[in-house]
Sequence to fold (94 residues):
Amino acid sequence: MPQQVTRLGIAFAVLAVVFLAVRQQLVPDTFGEKGHYRAAAVDSIAAYPLQYAGHEECTLCHRPIAERRSASGGAPRTTPASPAKCVTDRRRSM
Fold:
């Protein structure tokens, strides 16, 4: 076998070992537990304070409810009926 092939094989083996070592250090421990994301991210996002985003934001996801409300002549709510359905404001620091 030519000398270049042996050296190239050793170089690829070293690169593979370095890649696997770096990957082991950089990938979070909870990555992949609940899907293709960091499972601890769910808790991190849930820790942000909740803030009511307003009628327009709610209408984006809850269009049927907004249409029923406008058809019945009901005014849009100024506060949410269920605080658990508030939008998480990620722009603010904790």
